[in-house]
Amino acid sequence: MTVYLLSDSSLEFPPARLARYDGLLCIGGDLTPQRLINAYKNGIFPWFSAQEPILWWSPDPRLVLYPDKINISKSLNKKIRKSYFEVTIDKAFEEVIRACSKYRGERRKSTWLVDQMVEAYINLHCLGYAHSVETWRDGRLAGGLYGVSLGRVFFGESMFSYVSDASKTALAGLCSYLKHHDFDLIDCQVTSAHLLSMGAEEISRGRFLKQLTASIKTDSLTGRWNFEGF
Asked: Are the C-beta atoms of 56 and 43 separated by less than 8 Å?
C-alpha cells in the first residue's frame, strides 16, 4: 500500500483509513501546533526516531480506554484511598515529558521522544492543548503521563513511573478528571498489556474514527487544568 508524502505548504492529511497494514500513513511535514492538532482531529499521530523522517500513523485496531471503565485493582485502590501519592494536573508538564523521554531511553536504548517532539508538545501545552498528570511522593515526582486534549477526547502519549503504581495512579486521576468533565474516551493508540490490564480495549479504526468525529465537535477544554480529586 502507498505511504503518502506530506506537502510542506498544506496541513492536510490523507484519510486515516488509507494507512498501511502496520498503521503507517504518511511521512514528512512538520510538528507545528496547527499540523499536530489537525493530525489528532483525523485520528493520526506522529511516531519516529531520531534517524527517521517524521512518520504519521493510524493503526488498526486502536486501543482506547473509556474513563468510566478503568480497572483499578484492590491494592491500587487502597493507595488511592490512603492518598499514598499526591496527584496534580499541569503542575510540571515539561518535567513529565522529559521524564517520559529519559525513562523510555533508559529501557529501550532509544526513544521516539526526540528533542523536536518534546519541544512540539511543550508548545501545545503552552497553547492549552497538551496536559500532564503528575504523581508525587514525599514532594518528589514519582510518575506521570501526558497527552493532547481535543473536544471530548484525550489522546494519551506517554507515561512513566519511578515508584510502583505511580503511573497507574496518574491514569486513575486522569480518568476521574475526564469523567467529571464528560469526556468520551482516552486514545491509547497501540495495544499494550499494561493498558489492557487497566481496562483499555481494542476497537476497529473505523469505529474509532466515527467516535472521534462525534467527540471533537465539542469545544476543547483548553488552558490549565486543575485536579479536583477522586
From this structure: no
